[in-house]
Amino acid sequence: MGTVEIYGAQMGAGVLVHGGAGHVDASRRPDHVEGCKHAARVGYDVIASGGSALDAVQAAARVLEDLPAFNAGTGAALNEDGAVEHDAAIMEGATLRAGGVAALRGFKNPIDVARAVLDHGRHVLLAAEGASSFALARGFSKVEEESLVTERAKETLARVLAGRAETGWAGGTIGAVARDRHGSVAAATSTGGTVSKLRGRVGDSPILGAGTLADDVSCAVSATGDGEGILKIGLARVIATLVERGEPVERAAHAAIERMVERTKANGGVIVFDRHGRFGFARSTETMSWAVCGESGADAGI
Ligand code: GLY
After folding, report:
1. Cα(50) to centroid of ligand 1, in Å?
2. Which atom, in ligand 1's list, is nearest to the CA of 224?
3. Which of 227, 245, 259, 288 could make an S-S bridge to 204, C-beta 3.0–4.6 Å?
4. Interval between CA 91 and ligand 1 midpoint (Å)
5. Which tens digit of pLDDT belongs to each residue from 137-164?
């Protein structure tokens, strides 16, 4: 097992985002960090003007979905057919309202569709054709699927299919966690999943307690990395349970990532914000771009 890196600090109200755990080439790292900084700033602007943590994480996630550097929205990883199938979820810690979409095709901002599922309130997770019909009925427009596909995503899939790169790992999932001025937390995660995944494969991101969770009794969590491992361990729920018992967020994140690596051999990272305003993250991968912006200042890294 590689070293699990951790970081934690006090922030008060603020937004923390990640741009995915993995290995980002040195030449692409500035783009990752700048994208995260911009998203955290946009998210915090919502909170600074009196908005909720829920609206803040949605705004931050939308920024990252629109940046082709990340594996979400435009630029998402391609499945075995060369198609984009998005997963996304969003959750509010004060009310436990949540919404998610899985294997959704043809929408520019899956996090907005996930938010519509949350606002609609009848179900928590919609998949594939059903999610698509729901989105159309709620006034979202489909885009040309090709407009979501970048040259880099095509090249990555071609390398994997030619056996020149490992199948599965994509990196670049995006996520945001926040705490607002009322002490409420929220989480959002969005991804294209893994390169050359089977059609219909659903990862951890839209599954509450795995890739995404927010609960005001503990914290908000957004995960990134090997979805199958994150699902098996229930990564976000492990962290929330530890935080509820009084563990600082970064120590809870560290313990959960260590457990995942030991039990499943999967790697990844996670960001956490608790209701007392402490944020932190842990990762077992070489890189995980992140940025935080809030009452006590701003910081970023990879
Ligand atoms: N963690 C993103 C995925 O595996 O789908």
Report:
1. 32
2. 1
3. 227
4. 17
5. 999 999 999 999 999 999 999 999 988 7
